[in-house]
Amino acid sequence: MDNQTACPITNLSNLFKPLDLSDPYPLMAQARQEEPVFYSPEINYWVVTRFEDIKAIFQDYETFTAENTITPIEPFSETVLEMLNDGDYTPVPVLSNNVPPSHTRIRKLVNKLFTPRRMKHFEPEIRQIVNGRIDTFIDQGKVDIVSAMTYDLPAMVLFRVLGVPDEDVPQVKVWSDNRILLYYGRPTPEEQIEFTKNLIPFWKYTVGLVEKKVANPEDDLISDLIAMRNGDDSILTINEIASCMITLLVAGHETTTAQMSNAVQHLLEDRPKWEALCQNPALIPNANEELMRFDPSVCTWRRVARKACTIAGIDIPKDSNLLLMLNSGNRDTAVFPKPDDIVLERKNAAKNLAFGFGIHYCVGAPLARLELNITLEELTRRIPTLQLVPEQHYEYVENLSFRGPLKLWVEWKK
Ligand code: HEM
Question: Against a cut of 0.90, is the pTM above it?
Answer without folding.
Answer: yes
